[in-house]
Specification:
Blueprint (H helix, E strand, L loop, with lengths): L1 H21 L6 E7 L13 E6 L2 E5 L5 H8 L17 E3 L5 H4 L2 H10 L6 E5 L3 H11 L1 H9 L11 E5 L3 E5 L4 E6 L9 E6 L4 E4 L7 H7 L4 E7 L1 H4 L4 H10 L3 H11 L3 E8 L5 H9 L6 E3 L7
Parallel strand pairs: 3-4, 4-5, 5-6, 10-11, 11-12, 12-13
Antiparallel strand pairs: 1-2, 2-3, 7-8, 8-9, 9-10
Bound molecules: zinc ion (2 copies).
The site of one zinc ion (ZN) has 4 residues, from loops.
């Protein structure tokens, strides 16, 4: 009995140290999963959004519904420890594509940080169509903006503004903290669906957005510290009707397909997000991946930090 117990301790210690050797904790770059959900309105999984925090500055990738409140949950104002994720610090956002599950938080991201004191425009990067989307949101809230700016509310006249930068393949942003590269990925018939590669002083992070299996993601994620990739369960897929199976196999990536991709790219850590479980468990999802992949892989949950 005691020998078995010791063996368990040793094996846990071994697996933890093996993990530590793969991906060292970083004092410079943190990845915070603000939302790991999909269009399905799971209350435990907010709409897709990831914060890459570098030297205390947050950079968002996608802004699904709930994004601002999930960020607030990490900030000291609400009991968290990440000053970087104070609402008024949300100033840079990178949109993968215009699908509503990834972008329905745009009005929230434009307006709430401003109301909470952001005194600079939102710098918004995204594919063709992003400028129209931002302008329509501003038009929709024109009365609110005018009331706050022109009325008794001591609001600034800058924080509601949006500087839109429509992107193409290549480096789309660079500062002292990050180099951000966008590259197109296959996502059904969308012509402008992008993934992003963040290179920081100490980490390389690739985020798929929505994508069917794509060799470009493998290339960019080769040897990366973290690959954050969307996925759907094979077990759940088998229960879908044929029209939905056709849709999903053209637009998204199965566990087996992702396992094979990760086997070629070999990131130090694979994080699953934007997960279509369709009734399957996290354990089943991981087992399906592990049938094809022996590297480190975790199911991402909202507010997990790496
Ligand atoms: Zn999509
Ligand atoms: Zn999506």
């Amino acid at each position: 009995m005691r020998a078995e117990f010791l063996l368990l301790i040793v094996s846990v210690a071994f697996s933890l140290s093996a993990f530590a050797a793969e991906l060292e904790p970083s004092g410079i770059t943190q990845v915070v999963l603000l939302g790991t959900g999909t269009p399905n309105v799971d209350p435990e999984r907010s709409g897709p959004a990831v914060a890459i925090v570098v030297n205390g500055t947050p950079y968002l990738v996608d802004f699904g519904p709930g994004v601002v409140r999930r960020a607030a949950a990490m900030s000291p104002s609400w009991g968290g420890e990440m000053t970087a994720l104070r609402t008024s610090n949300l100033k840079h956002a990178f949109l993968t594509h215009l699908h509503s599950d990834h972008s329905a938080g745009l009005s929230d991201l434009i307006l709430s940080p401003w109301v909470m004191g952001r005194d600079e425009p939102l710098e918004l990067y995204g594919p063709s169509g992003t400028a129209d989307m931002a302008n329509y949101v501003l038009k929709a809230y024109e009365a609110d903006i005018r009331y706050r700016v022109d009325g008794l509310e001591p609001a600034n006249d800058r924080g509601w503004r949006v500087n839109v930068h429509e992107i193409d393949d290549g480096v789309v942003f660079e500062d002292d903290n990050v180099n951000v590269e966008a590259f197109r990925v296959r996502h059904g018939t969308w012509t402008n669906a992008f993934a992003y590669k963040f290179t920081t002083p100490d980490r390389v992070i690739v985020i798929s957005g929505d994508a069917a299996p794509d060799a470009r993601i493998e290339e960019q994620a080769a040897g990366a510290d973290i690959l954050i990739h969307e996925v759907y369960s094979m077990e759940g897929f088998a229960k879908k009707t044929s029209d939905w199976q056709k849709y999903h196999s053209n637009n998204h990536t199965s566990t087996h397909e992702l396992g094979e991709m990760a086997g070629r790219a070999r990131p130090k850590l694979l994080i699953l997000y934007h997960i279509l479980f369709w009734g399957s468990s996290e354990e089943t999802l991981l087992l399906e991946i592990q049938e094809k992949y022996d590297g480190e892989v975790v199911v991402g949950n909202d507010l997990d930090t790496y």
